[in-house]
């Protein structure tokens, strides 16, 4: 009854049922579309027991509840009836035109992105080990090698646990329960049966195939997906006071046998056959396959389709011990981008762009090519074509000599040791040759070919860049400056799950040194939170951002915030929006870190953040939005 009463009070202070056109929920918040936002009594809602905060964001009115949001939402459904849609239904309506293939890529990227640091770190250690052994600086029979090998292999051996935890978050099921499912398929006594010549285990009337699932990813992804479906279905019928016990127990008892008997073996076979297919493809048509994949890998990365190769890559590394597609083709592609942007750096006359090109070449050398692709090569066009050609040349070399990557690492110059294997020096030699050929081909082509935009003046570029790029079918770049002066960091460092996990959209955060908030672009003020701690703007090119000053600063009820603009007011880049008393925030034991979120991130090709130690408000470009 308390949750129903809270729901009724929230609806009343929203202006009543007649003022609500739609209601739905997310993980911690109730969300409403209101006919007249002026009828909403935000302060009264914030004062309700059980409400953590309330604010307008874009065209939504959000009421932050926290962990009890589902219970309060049940009350909202009883009161509003047909006006309510589930978060899943809302997502479907908002994304009804989204390509199903993009949804799959989004799921895969959402699972693998959080665990890439662990995988990449372990891969680099494996590469270093291979290099030390090759240089006779480490004895493979020594204890030192044993410990380092254990450190590097643990991530890959227990990869199902990492994938399970990440997949649990992605599919909306308890992460620890998902990790438990990984523990079941990797239970040591079960895995050891395969070494004893036992092929199946009898369970009731079912035969469980005995298989070793270490280093695999497809079995556990499919298993956690099934677990999430079963868990959510059961949870609908279990009384609240029994959910903690009944739901997980029944979910595991149903899911685990199905996974062991059907899902995991099927996933394992799929992973092995897909990996075998690519190995066979390069065996039969190596030069052609390498030419095409090396040349097109940059395009594949831009579209996000490279995530589709992640499962087969890890299955290949865990099964046959190497990858012949994603990692090798990515490194030659990246070196092509590096060579092209370095060539452009020598030809560009504009000092600012020349500096960007040189710095982009350095990051591309280490495998981070987004600044090179979007910041320079696509802008000048010919370098991008040169980069694709360089990647194709390197890919053909890799295809001819069947170059293999023996560990996962960021496909840059530091990944070359992962192509070393004892007794197979030729693989490393041809890996280096392919990388050099990709780089040199792209570099020479860029030097020789004219840059299409090199004769334009700075002012002309600014006026026509967006129009010309869009008309010719290329990606337009829209910069977003820092809203405050201070250290710019990734959203992952924000101590608020909604921001850190990008639930509200992509963006960046500022750890402020000064208390003035400035406009990050030219545009219009669309929303000022009643408690003054957040402000929303839309640029003249359609980019929606919300600047949220501090974490939980809604509790200050506007104290320490001085608004300098009005809603619907047009502002210029760098124009002051508000002044903030940072000391008051700290005195109230609140974190002043300020996320800036692009709330319509899904409408764009990509949103890249550029962390830096000292960002200047209204000047330093900390986000680039690509359309």
Give a quick summary of the entry.
The protein has 627 residues and is α+β, with helices and mostly antiparallel strands.
> From the helix content, strand content and strand pairing, which structural class follows?
alpha+beta
Question: Biggest sheet: strands side by side, in what order?
Answer: 15-11-12-13-17-9-8-19
State the helical fraction.
Answer: 40-55%
Rg from Cα: 27 Å
- DSSP E strands, number: 20
Count of DSSP H/I helices: 21
How far apart, in Å, are the first and last alpha carbons? 48 Å
Mean pLDDT: 82
Largest sheet: 8 strands, antiparallel
Shape: globular
Strand content is 15-25%
Task: Provide key terms for this protein.
20 strands; 8-stranded antiparallel β-sheet; alpha+beta; 627 residues
Q: Secondary-structure blueprint of this entry?
A:
Layout: H1 2-13, E1 20-25, E2 29-34, H2 42-47, E3 53-57, E4 60-64, H3 69-80, H4 87-94, H5 100-112, H6 116-134, H7 143-157, H8 159-171, H9 175-185, H10 188-192, E5 200-203, E6 206-209, H11 218-235, H12 243-303, H13 310-319, H14 326-347, H15 351-365, H16 370-380, H17 382-401, H18 425-448, H19 458-471, E7 477-481, E8 486-489, H20 497-500, E9 506-512, E10 516-518, E11 523-528, E12 534-539, E13 544-548, E14 561-563, E15 570-571, E16 576-580, H21 582-587, E17 594-598, E18 606-609, E19 612-615, E20 621-626
How would you characterize the overall build of this protein?
Strand 1 (20-25) and strand 2 (29-34) form a beta hairpin. Mean pLDDT is 82; it is low at 94-98 and 453-474. The chain has 627 residues and is an alpha+beta fold.
């Amino acid at each position: 009854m308390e949750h129903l009463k809270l729901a009724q009070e929230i609806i009343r202070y929203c202006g009543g049922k007649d003022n609500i056109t739609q209601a739905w929920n997310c993980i911690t918040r109730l969300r409403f579309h209101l006919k007249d936002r002026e009828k909403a009594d935000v302060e009264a809602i914030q004062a309700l027991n059980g409400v953590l905060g309330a604010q307008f964001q874009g065209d939504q009115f959000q009421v932050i509840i926290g962990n009890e949001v589902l219970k309060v939402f049940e009350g909202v459904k009883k009161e509003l009836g047909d006006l309510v849609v589930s978060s899943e239904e809302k997502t479907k309506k908002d994304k009804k035109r989204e390509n199903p293939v993009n949804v799959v890529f989004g799921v895969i990227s959402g699972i693998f992105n959080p665990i890439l640091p662990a995988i990449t770190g372990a891969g680099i250690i494996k590469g270093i080990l291979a290099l030390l052994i090759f240089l006779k600086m480490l004895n493979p029979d020594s204890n030192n090698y044993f410990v380092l090998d254990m450190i590097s292999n643990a991530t890959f051996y227990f990869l199902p646990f990492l994938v399970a935890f990440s997949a649990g978050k992605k599919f909306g099921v308890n992460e620890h329960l998902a990790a438990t499912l990984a523990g079941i398929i990797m239970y040591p006594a079960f895995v050891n049966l395969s070494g004893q010549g036992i092929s199946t285990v009898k369970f009731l009337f079912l035969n469980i195939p005995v298989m070793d699932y270490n280093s695999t990813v497809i079995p556990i992804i499919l298993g956690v997906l099934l677990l999430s479906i079963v868990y959510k279905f059961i949870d609908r019928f279990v009384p609240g006071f029994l959910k903690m016990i009944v739901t997980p127990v029944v979910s595991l008892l149903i899911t685990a046998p199905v996974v062991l008997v059907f899902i995991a073996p099927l996933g394992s076979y799929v992973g092995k056959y897909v990996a075998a297919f690519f190995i066979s493809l390069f065996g039969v048509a190596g030069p052609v396959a390498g030419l095409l994949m090396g040349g097109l890998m940059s395009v594949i990365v831009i579209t996000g389709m490279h995530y589709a190769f992640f499962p087969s890559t890890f299955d290949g590394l865990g099964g046959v011990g190497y990858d012949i597609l994603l990692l090798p083709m990515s490194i030659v592609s990246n070196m092509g981008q590096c060579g092209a942007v370095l060539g452009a750096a020598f030809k560009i006359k504009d000092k600012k762009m020349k500096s960007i090109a040189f710095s982009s070449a350095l990051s591309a050398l280490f495998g981070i090519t987004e600044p090179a692709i979007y910041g320079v090569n696509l802008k000048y066009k010919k370098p991008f074509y040169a980069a694709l050609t360089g990647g194709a040349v390197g890919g053909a070399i890799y295809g001819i000599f069947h170059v293999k990557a023996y560990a996962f690492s960021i496909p840059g110059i530091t990944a070359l040791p992962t192509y070393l294997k004892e007794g197979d020096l030729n693989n490393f030699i041809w890996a280096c040759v392919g990388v050099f050929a990709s780089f040199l081909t792209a570099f020479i082509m860029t030097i020789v070919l004219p840059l299409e935009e090199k004769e334009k003046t700075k002012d002309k570029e600014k006026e026509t860049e967006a129009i010309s790029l869009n008309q010719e079918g290329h990606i337009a770049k829209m910069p977003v400056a820092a809203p405050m002066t201070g250290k710019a960091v990734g959203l992952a460092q924000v101590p608020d799950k909604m921001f850190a996990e990008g639930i509200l959209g992509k963006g960046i955060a500022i750890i402020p040194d000064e208390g003035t908030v400035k406009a990050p672009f030219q545009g219009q003020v669309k929303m000022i939170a009643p408690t003054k701690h957040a402000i929303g703007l839309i640029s003249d090119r359609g980019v929606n951002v919300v600047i949220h000053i501090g974490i939980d600063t809604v509790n200050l009820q506007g104290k320490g915030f001085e608004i300098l603009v009005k809603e619907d007011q047009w502002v210029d880049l760098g124009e002051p929006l508000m002044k903030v008393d940072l000391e008051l925030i700290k005195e109230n034991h609140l974190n002043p870190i300020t996320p800036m979120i692009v709330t319509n991130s899904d409408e764009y090709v990509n949103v890249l953040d550029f962390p830096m130690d000292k960002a200047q408000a209204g000047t330093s470009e900390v986000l680039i939005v690509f359309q």
